[in-house]
Design brief:
This protein is mostly helical. It contains 4 helices and no strands. The chain starts with 5 loop residues before the first helix and ends with a helix.
Amino acid sequence: MAAMDTETKVLDVRFRSQCRKTELCAFFERGWCSKAERCEFAHGAAQLSSVPDLKKTSLCKKWMQFQCRRSSEQCSFAHGAHELRATQAYIQ
């Protein structure tokens, strides 16, 4: 597999950071998490973040192939560039 270019790595980190601490760490609950502050998961309810709304943040692959059977309103993905929106992580 080819190495990711710098821009792709930055976008990947930005995307993944949106979901950080949105679920409890199963290892922490059992006393086994060795990642401490580096853990992507919440160590207790106080650390939980809300799940971001990712609807319409990427184009519908099926729509691009003329195969999506859902209407634009029913589909979680954008049916055209005019429907695309950015989350707070990308607006910053």
